[in-house]
């Protein structure tokens, strides 16, 4: 979603046509990493353009309050512009900042937090301490999962991501951001599909079998999990495919099929079956080992997870007597990592498979003071309190949609002394802070770069009870 403030301009009288070209001065980056300039006081969003640059753009589409345009030529170049590590960086999503120096990327990520705070204006926001973004030493080769669309183009099977604002798949033969194993396995799988003549999905005709291939690697063990997302339960030449994977890709220890029929914007369907090998692969964070089932969530950058969690635990300032609630717990990566340092951990998640994984991971690691339940935090937490459980600390790590209003109300009613919010979306964080700052003061916000070369931001918020 484009980020703009309609109070800056009155743009009703601005008219442009698709294909029209004009020169533009880029003023800043938007929340999605696109360059932003003004044409006759109307906002123009230009992916690939950088602040201070003068560029020639071509109108892609005009909407009521802004214009989308494509970058045609850079006339005056920013000192922060670098050569992207991937040739297609500006053609597909997930590589938005590859042409921006890494130092400038880290600054941008802190600045975006400041901009969203200014937009929502939670209590005391001008006094918040926004710490410099913590980055990677080598910000490439980190993505532990590749989820690529599989299509046929000119008689060849391709695997990649959709071209920006289209359903045309860009064939990604290489990706500097992916863990090398994910790309090795993905390209080998594409060759197998081609050789075996397995029908792939045709979006226009809603026909074919294989829609998407998901390859996930556990960086600590180099175990690989492959999932074929298919149009139907039928997977032609399944046994030949499995046999070739065994012969050519010994790293693959788990092969699954997920059925997602029909035309849908969702990648995953409801039915998942392991068709060969183990049910899980094993990742490690610190001293704790985690078995990951096919649908289990794990942060995309295993190399920066310890840094993110260390910052969260530092902000919590835990003691051995503390009881901790791990909300939006997933497979227990946060709670199980701190369990040895506290009295008790209780977690919850709405995904039953994740909760099962969390409890299994607890047992396998010999952790006896952590337990996980299926349900919403805003429902389970009051029930636990009614039973006599009083949390000393709460840590929340919600999806991009942020906290549920009912959970915010529950936290404010519970009033834990220690409270930390891990956010992956500055906009929903700033929105949630409007309510949370009624009873809590923000001591600082520490941004951590889990997704270098993209506009995504993770941050840790330390609260102090008023």
Automatic annotation (TrEMBL):
Residues 15-73 form the TRAM domain. PROSITE patterns: SAM_MT_RNA_M5U, TRAM, TRMA_1. One of its GO terms (biological process) is rRNA base methylation. Keywords: Methyltransferase, S-adenosyl-L-methionine, Transferase. One of its GO terms (molecular function) is rRNA (uridine-C5-)-methyltransferase activity. The active site is at 424, 424 (nucleophile). S-adenosyl-L-methionine binds at residues 299, 328, 349, 397. InterPro entries: MeTrfase_TrmA_AS (IPR030390), NA-bd_OB-fold (IPR012340), SAM-dependent_MTases_sf (IPR029063), TRAM_dom (IPR002792), U5_MeTrfase_fam (IPR010280). Belongs to the class I-like SAM-binding methyltransferase superfamily. RNA M5U methyltransferase family. This is RNA methyltransferase, TrmA family.
